[in-house]
Design goal:
about 120 residues; mainly alpha; 2 helices
Length: about 120
């Protein structure tokens, strides 16, 4: 009878050890799957971040060379000066054109006078 109790005790211990091992293995596999998923996500996120960092660096290089508001103001002032200079040149050319037209008319009259009074 004691042997049967010992066999029953050993069976119960064996069953408890088997159940414990089953639970341990199940939790361990779940942890491994979770850890693998996390590592995969880390790799994916790191690759995306590297791409974004590269793009941001390129944008920073471009933005560094963009003219500032002061530069644009200076360009606007230069363009206004050039416009004023062109307007003055246009007025001067108009005056010269009027003078040349008057001289052409005068020369034409003088030519007519001299041809008529030979």
């Amino acid at each position: 009878m004691i042997i049967e109790w010992i066999k029953l005790g050993l069976s119960v211990v064996s069953l408890l050890v088997s159940v414990g091992m089953f639970i341990y293995i199940r939790i361990d596999r779940r942890d491994r799957a979770t850890t693998k998923s996390i590592e995969d996500l880390k790799g994916y996120v790191n690759a995306k971040l590297d791409d974004k960092c590269t793009r941001i660096t390129r944008l920073e290089e471009v933005v560094k060379n963009v003219p500032s508001h002061n530069d644009l103001g200076e360009i606007y002032r230069e363009m206004r000066k050039q416009s004023e200079t062109m307007a003055a040149m246009n007025a001067s050319l108009s005056a010269q054109s009027a003078t040349l037209s008057a001289m052409k008319e005068l020369v034409g009259r003088m030519d007519t006078f001299w041809r008529d009074h030979k």
